[in-house]
Amino acid sequence: MNSLFTPLSWSDSGLILTGVWNxxxxxxVAIVVGTLLGLIVGFLRAESNKAVNVLFGSVLDxxxxxxxxxxxxxxxxxxxxxxxxxxxxxxxxIVLSLYTMAFMSEVFRSGFESVSPSMQTAARSLGxxxxxxxxxxxxxxxxxxxxxxxxxxxxxxxxxxxxxxxIGYMELLRxxxxxxxRTQQPLEILIGVGxxxxxxxxxxxxxxxxxxxxxAI
Amino acid sequence: MxxxxxxxxxxxxxxxxxxxxxxxxxxxxxxxIGGSGSGKSTLLYCINAIEPINKGKILVDDVDVHAKxxxxxxxxxxxxxxxxxxxxxxxxxxxxxxxxxxxxxxxMSKEEAIEIAxxxxxxxxxxxxxxxxxxxxxxxxQQRLAIARALAMKPDYMLLDEVTSAxxxxxxxxxxxxxxxxxxxxxxxxxxxHEMGFARDVSDRVAYFHQGVIAEIGEARQVITDPQNPLxxxxxxxxx
Lengths: 217, 240
Known about the structure:
The structure holds two protein chains of two kinds.
Chain A: H1 13-47, H2 50-65, H3 68-81, H4 88-113, H5 117-125, H6 130-160, H7 172-183, H8 186-215
Helix pairs in contact in A: 1-4, 1-7, 2-4, 3-4, 4-6, 5-6, 6-8, 7-8
Chain B: E1 2-11, E2 14-24, E3 29-34, H1 40-47, E4 55-60, E5 63-64, H2 72-78, E6 79-82, H3 94-104, H4 110-123, H5 139-151, E7 157-161, H6 169-184, E8 188-192, H7 196-202, E9 205-210, E10 213-219, H8 220-225, H9 230-239
Parallel strand pairs in B: 3-8, 3-9, 6-7, 7-8
Antiparallel strand pairs in B: 1-2, 1-4, 4-5, 9-10
Helix pairs in contact in B: 3-4, 3-5, 4-5, 5-6
């Protein structure tokens, strides 16, 4: 009698690589979009008065405080219920990007605020315009100051992307779950998947340390 | 010429300048002395349009600094300013610090900007520090960098706001020497300073600020050594 379960074999590597690839893609999208939006929102928060900040802050607080898994399920269910279900990748990218943005904006805000007003006055006194001062002084100094925090957020996004599996996105964790239910070899597979997450994250953290050393001021 | 005409300036309810008038001719060095909170630094900030004024007028080469249509960024190119805190740009080398504004504000080519920056850095005695990051230098060196950075814009005037106040005592001399050199070269300067010796020896005139007005102004040696106003006498007896 043939077993209901079939052991892990080389033919499964295609599935695993698809999972790896999908994890990388959605992480890159979320980090890039989240960083860009976070830069804008962080800058606006550093520049804005209190009223605007309270408004921004409360939206960001919700994004940061509600667990990602709940945000994913609520968003994709809600959009689906409205009659236009989104592909898991699209829904997942939107939620993960906004979630990333919420953390990045705080990182960048503190970066912008770390550049003292007197530094900016010194730049302006040389005839630099407001935007030249932002671009040449505030942005580079602020970004250097918060780069380690940025890296921390980026790395956690890669790991958080595993949660997008709950809305049906075939990333690394979900492919491994499928393999586990078929092979009943959870130990081997989860160890393998853990190694894959490490392989994805390590270059970023390694490169980050290199960049940090180079930028040390 | 810088012409300050009956300038009033308040921060909230606090009136810091209560009708200040001062003319500084080309080539002249004027030192401004006075207790803290007397408004002397605020005057520099107003001349450079960093702070708006409430009343009166400031003309720089006949341009009304605080008029609506004045391009303040353009105006500041003429007015080099150095602050108590040197504010070196920490992410750039010394050379890049000095070359930045000529390149992006005056739109010079990179080569041109670097050439001017090198010249001004040598001018202030930092010829051997081009590739050093400013955070690796002493306060006195960083302050000289700030002076070179301002000079690289080829300003017609220099506004110096207590540039030695934040320095360790042993570093004050090198910065004052640099300013002395500029004065000898004919740079027009307004120096807010606590260095009475410097004010006496280097400047043409000295103005004593007291509670938002110029209480006494005159030839430098005379004001410092033989002040006429009892307020000036009292102040000088305390700082000496």
